[in-house]
Amino acid sequence: MPPDESPARPPSDDCWREAVLTAGLAVFDWDVPSGRIWRSPEMLSNWDYPAGPNEAVDAARAVIHPDDFPAFWTRMGQVGAGAVPRATLEIRMRSREGAWRWVRWRARVTATGPDGRPARVVGTVNDIDELWKGRDLARESQMRLQGIVDSAMDAIISVDGEQHITLFNRAAERIFGYEPREVLGQRLDMLIPARFHAEHRDHVESFGRTGVSSRPMMSRRIVTALRRGGEEFPIDASISQNEIRGQRFYTVILRDVSVRERTRRELAQAREDLRELSVASRTAREQENSRISRELHDELGQNLTSLKMDLAWLETHGPPEDEKYLRTLSGMRSVLDSTVAATRRISADLRPLMLDDLGLAAALEWLAEETSRRHGFVVKLAVDEASTNLAEPLASQVYRIVQEGLTNAGRHAAAANVAVTLRSVGREVLLDIEDDGRGLAPEDLRKKGSFGLVGIRERVYTLAGSVEIRGDPGEGTAIHVRMPIPAERQEDA
Ligand SMILES: Nc1ncnc2c1ncn2[C@@H]1O[C@H](COP(=O)(O)OP(=O)(O)OP(=O)(O)O)[C@@H](O)[C@H]1O
Ligand SMILES: [Mg+2]
Q1: Which residue among 106, 115, 382, 468 is least enclosed by CB atoms within 10 Å?
Q2: In whole numbers, what is the pLDDT of the chain averaged over residues?
Q3: What is the best residue among 375, 403, 412, 418 to mutate for testing ligand 1's pocket, by most ligand atoms within 8 Å of CB?
Q4: Omega before 66 within 30 of 0, i.e. cis
Q5: How far does the centroid of ligand 2 lie from the alpha carbon of residue 456, in Å?
Q6: Helices 394-408 + 452-462 axis angle, to 10
């Protein structure tokens, strides 16, 4: 190309050049036959063109990035030769400050000579560096977001105002079994069992009206979703909403909780099985105790009684002056008496036969008398009408709890009075054991090697009841128990 004439006055078209100057545009005007190029002041002040007359190629080399120069030069050569009528290039140019900046370079043939070849090429240079940087930043943050969304363990699904799916991340693919192309643009309904469609739509619409930006969907129920194969599964989900340029969209983050739900159900089942097992084993033990207790009472008791009668006969029919004989008989009588007492005690401790023969209220009365005699405190027992004949296994458990409560009062409390109250209210029995002794400390409730209170709690829990044990030091101790009365038993009672 011939020598460059910039910044000399342009040869023609003063009018549009005035406009260019006024608008402050970076414009060049290339007179192709002469090779002269006019550059607007903006062009010269922004870009690092060498001062003074110079060859176009040198000027271009000075301002255009070496990597971009060859393509630029070829392309502009094509425009100048008439091979193409216009060109748009994105290249880097050096600014007056010395930094490379991206520009959009546009050139267009605006006049042709009599030979049909381009006579004049006019073009603009737009600095798009900021634009590109912005675009890069946007792309980068988009990619970062995409990375987060895709690496999330939870399914993330966005829908537009009409509930068409617009985003479906990897976890969603894994959980639902669909590929994005199968769901994008489809209605969210495809991921929800049909019977919940209306409810779900209402939920989202009412959420949309609230204007709240996020809300868990778990507040009242487990939400159910639908896998590709038609399998339903429980999910935990939360929903958020946003508005961009007037368009509302919703994002649901959800988690497949079928494993958790299954584990919870299995745990509840295992607990229930354990409870039943515990009840059954206690019942079996009570029955066994009852059998042994009856044997002791009936068999041993009968035999001891007949021995006592024989002894009485010997006392009246033996030699009256034989001192040694009489002393031996008297010794035998006292051994026999204590054996009878021990047999009764062991038998009653194993299982008060009264519980089976006369019912709970009678057994508790006997227990109250027995303990108050043994420990020297007053037991005030109150059993209401409805509780006098509570059925098994409730009766045995109530009896054992009262037994432990009274024994503790005797052993630990130094109490003067103990009140035992048993009532049936609705379908519950309420049992209170209160003493006026020294009370207990919180650590007593978990004393190593002590199983009385633990046993009470366990008995109550196995019958699905609740227990509260209170006893501030110096305030006495109170045990409050509530236990449900099983439906069929209630009618028996
Ligand atoms: N009525 C009470 N008054 C004061 N302290 C009590 C009373 N009941 C229980 N305690 C305290 O709580 C502790 C735990 O009682 P728990 O019945 O569990 O065990 P224990 O009576 O010591 O032994 P066991 O296993 O034979 O019942 C007792 O050792 C005692 O210190
Ligand atoms: Mg105890």
Answers
A1: 115
A2: 87
A3: 412
A4: no
A5: 10
A6: 160
